[in-house]
């Protein structure tokens, strides 16, 4: 582990030391062989659960896709406000938009979830974007519909919805689509994993640009 590698969110001496110690401990547990391991490390730190590293899946070189999108200033779309709050706001030029609340009229008319409705409301703005869905399987399934039908082409999808209704199925479907993605296997997932994944890509981007 590079002793000088810290998270850009760590801005004080104590925070930097905690970051370094955490990275050192986790790298010994799960390895440090490249960018994917950096994602695994951060997700393990975010959850306090080393087994998270075993259920992460990377499809079609998603880290490179995310770095290119950040370089282009691509927009970042998230499913809920909790995810939006967790994304690092420095080190990149990308704006953040939450789906929830963007399509409430559609949600009422169609009887679908507010996150799904937000995806539909903003579908014409999703090409080339980074998509971050940490909680809502319905939003991920709607996004998969749009991608499969050629109506949206994001640069990267980080799909880690959590739960027992459609969470595992939505992520399995995502992995079968021709789009760069990071996801988890099974019912486990949630905001910490989604946020940790994108924040580590931002961290790699910021470090590589200096």
The description of the largest β-sheet is: 6 strands, mixed
Low-confidence stretches: none
The helix/strand series, from N terminus to C terminus, equals HHHEHEHEHHEHEHEH
Describe the strand arrangement of the main beta sheet, using strand numbers: 1-6-5-4-2-3
CATH class: Alpha Beta
Number of helical elements = 10
- Quaternary state reads single chain
Distance between the ends: 19 Å
Helix content: 40-55%
What does this entry look like structurally?
By secondary structure, the protein is of the alpha/beta class. It has one domain (54-208): Cobalamin biosynthesis CobH/CbiC, precorrin-8X methylmutase (Rossmann fold, 3-Layer(aba) Sandwich), CATH 3.40.50. The chain is built from 10 helices and 6 strands; from the N terminus they run αααβαβαβααβαβαβα. It has a 6-stranded mixed sheet with strand order 1-6-5-4-2-3, sandwiched between helices. β5, α9 and β6 form a beta-alpha-beta unit. α7 (114-121) packs parallel to α8 (137-148).
